[in-house]
Amino acid sequence: MKPTFSVPKHKSYIEGPPRMVPGYDGLLRMTGMLFAEHIPQVGRVLVLGAGGGLELKAFGDAYPNWVFDAVDPSAEMLTLAASTAAKHSERISFHEGTIEVAPEGPFDAASCILVFHHIALEQRLDILKQVHRRLKPGASFVIAHVSFPQTEPEKSQWIARHVAFGVPDGTDLKQLEHSRQAIGTRLSILSPEEDEAMLGEAGFSNISLFYAGFSFKGWVAYA
Fold it and tell me: Which of 12, 48, 95, 211 gives the lowest tally of CB atoms within 10 Å of its CB?
């Protein structure tokens, strides 16, 4: 599928990650490097939660012989992704929906970056299992999202840190408090230990934490 709708106005999806996620560009570069360790010269990569297109652009720029299957539930966000990664359009297939609409593969690698803190906890294990079965044996999977301790007082402390880093300078105190409360109710967050355990339960092995950017964590694991 090639998106054909008008480009959305939500440019915050392009501007937000580099501002809110420490070392975002480095995270994408490291992800590509980890993939390249196991991908042959020509590789097929599954990008789960591809809306916005920043991963597609970064991977496409760095690895001209890779092709991509980009999955996102939002048609509007896929349109933005198509615009962001337009120069790589011939190497990208777009799929509107969740993991169920992704091709069966098998894929040489898969990424799921800044997605899982928006996914209900009870849905995560099934998604991970579905990613796993679409990967070639030994293929790499990179996942990165908000992850911090879920016991008090550490949990509240990390929520405050997450909000303080991500908001623009000069944000008033009421807005900061509103944002802290929203994090506790809108985002789905596990501790790093729970995240790693779930990856193992889904069938992944050799799970390694390779990225820690304040409240964000990133792992590489292998099918």
Answer: 12
